[in-house]
């Protein structure tokens, strides 16, 4: 059977395009900026199970290193690298423990004080160290939730919007600096329908 290649094809009716506001198109050169020089640094999220080398990986980064320690278990690894000549400075944060799902105002006040101190230290370290390590971002995220909710959860997912934005903004500040930034993150079992599916997923923000 011959095919008529010239046979007209049914086309969808044309849709009128709505024009935008009538904006003057004069000199727009001020809207364009030069491309900035690429910063030679890394911003990394490294996730692993407990005792699987997260700290070791972080301490292989260029020194001097600022360690923001929300968790424990980093001491022996840091000592090994310091013995080899790596300069590592640490600030430890004692994250309060939430024992109730209801808001606890005194817990929120304590967590907010620690969070504010961390934010100031974090920003200073971005300007004064070659590498900044967050150990771990899992506990860092818990601290922020405690500071804003007085608990780890409010039971309402919509209430996380402002807290997510605050965390995201702090992370993005690293892009304005020359320091390498390494967010260490724990892994936890992944559950589907309350059953562990055999895999793991990051625990914490994002």
Question: SSE layout and pairings?
Answer:
Elements: E1 43-48, H1 54-59, E2 65-69, H2 75-83, E3 88-92, H3 105-128, E4 131-135, H4 137-149, H5 161-172, E5 180-192, E6 195-202
Parallel strand pairs: 1-5, 2-3, 2-4, 4-5
Antiparallel strand pairs: 5-6
Write a concise keyword list for the protein shown above.
206 residues; alpha/beta; 6-stranded mixed sheet
Report on the structure:
This protein is an alpha/beta fold. It is 31% helix and 20% strand. The protein is built from five helices and six strands, in the order βαβαβαβααββ. Strands 1, 2, 3, 4, 5 and 6 form a six-stranded mixed sheet that branches. Helix 3 packs across helix 4. The relative contact order is 0.18. The model has no long low-confidence stretch (mean pLDDT 82).
Produce a short descriptive summary.
The chain is about 30% helix and about 20% strand.
Given the C-alpha coordinates, what overall shape results?
Answer: globular
Distance from first to last alpha carbon: 59 Å
Report the major sheet.
Answer: 6 strands, mixed
Radius of gyration: 25 Å
Average predicted confidence as pLDDT? 82
Secondary-structure element order, as H and E? EHEHEHEHHEE
Low-confidence stretches: none
* Number of beta strands: 6
The helix tally amounts to: 5
Percentage beta strand:
15-25%
| Helix content bin | 25-40%
Structural class: alpha/beta
